[in-house]
Amino acid sequence: WKIIRLDEVDSTNEYAKGIAPSSPEGTVVVAKRQTAGKGRKGRFWASPEGGLWVSVILKPNRSDPRLVFVGALAVVDALADFGIRGWIKWPNDVWVGGKKIAGILTEGKAGKFVVMGIGLNVNNEIPSDLRETATSMRAILGKRLELNEVTNRVLDHLGRWYKIFQRNPLKVIEAVKERTILINREVKVIHSDGEISGTAVDILEDGSLLIDTGEGKVRVVYGDVSIRP
Ligand code: BTN
User: Which residues form the BPL/LPL catalytic domain (predicted)?
Assistant: First the structure.
């Protein structure tokens, strides 16, 4: 990795997209704070000092939406290195004990580059209005962690899963299935033209979620969906 460290930036994803055309694969942008951290669907992502706010520039041979799983797996495996059991909430959140601890936001230019943004709550304070639904490594372990160490663990695992992904994306899907919280749960998927309720039964080879509605099985492709367990 070639790591660019910033004290403050609007969004590491925006910064990374700006430099991506002229940067090699493996360029990483890390910031101590983001003033306009972005979540999915244009939501605001609180990014005060103490958390891991990182974007990785990748140049895969072809764009593949399943790449987002590489980021989620990297976070789950990094959490395990610190004794925390995390689960992937399909398609791109990581949860611990019923609360969200990390989110992944991939953006890019088809055929040119992918920016994989990872936000992981490490030592940062969780705003009071989010405490019911969000958590941090510090809240779980009851102590502060060395942020650099967490960053290195995440990047190590990311590099490893990215290599596996390039050789065989199905290995990545298999790993996601083992680490996902949705399977066999009742879910409600909200998408652009309606709602689907049922039991999540599988994650398919293309990365989509299979839901048994009682009247048949429906395949949900990620993108514009949100899920309520
Ligand atoms: C989500 O759960 O909605 C995705 C959150 C992604 C946040 C990270 S923090 C680093 C990178 N820069 C951003 O502006 N967003 C991502």
Answer: 1-166
Cα end-to-end distance, the chain, whole Å? 37
Any ligand 1 atom below 6 A from CB of 40: yes
For tokens 């951290």, what's the residue? Answer: 37
Q: Return the domain boundaries, the chain.
A: 2-178, 186-228
Q: How far is the CA of 167 from the centre of ligand 1 (A)?
A: 27
Q: Which CATH homologous superfamily contains domain 2-178? A: Bira Bifunctional Protein; Domain 2 (3.30.930.10)
Distance of alpha carbon 205 from alpha carbon 66, whole angstroms:
9
Top-level class of domain 186-228: mainly beta
| Nearest one of 179, 171, 153 to 74, comparing CA atoms | 153
In a 3-state reduction of DSSP, which class is residue 103?
A: strand
Judge if pTM exceeds 0.90.
Answer: yes
Nearest residue by C-alpha to atom 9 in ligand 1: 119
Residue carrying the six token digits 């899907």: 173
- Do residues 42 and 68 lie in contact, with contact meaning Cβ atoms separated by under 8 Å? no
